[in-house]
Design a protein that fits this description.
mainly alpha; 120 residues
Length: 120
């Protein structure tokens, strides 16, 4: 794996460029050089979109399980009504938002690729 590939993987795991540079064992200046490279930025955007899409898919696949567990909580007479509502709201709102975001990122990535192809 090249240093650039290591840095790309680190960018998917770290919250900052500095932390990703440390994880990839490269200088911060090198990291920022990569971050200013259009091809690298495109690769990073695609990789982030894939991670986001994969996470959304995972959550979508497990919504039924979450729904069943939530229904246990909802049906349990010992559970406070506010807890029931919060549990239901949290899972479904987050899943909806993540799914919408993944779809938008995927569509934007496709649009960017098509636009770059037209320019070349």
């Amino acid at each position: 794996m090249t240093k650039k590939e290591s840095f790309l993987q680190a960018m998917l795991q770290c919250p900052t460029v500095s932390e990703a540079a440390k994880m990839a064992h490269i200088a911060r200046s090198t990291a920022y050089k990569y971050m200013n490279d259009e091809d690298f930025k495109a690769q990073l955007a695609r990789a982030k979109a894939e991670v986001l899409s994969g996470t959304a898919t995972f959550l979508q696949q497990n919504l039924a399980v979450c729904g069943k567990e939530l229904m246990k909580i909802v049906k349990d007479p010992k559970t406070a009504p506010a807890v029931k509502v919060q549990a239901i709201n949290t899972v479904f709102c987050n899943a909806k938002a993540l799914t919408e975001t993944a779809d938008i990122v995927e569509k934007l990535t496709e649009i960017e690729s098509k636009m770059k192809a037209q320019v070349k």
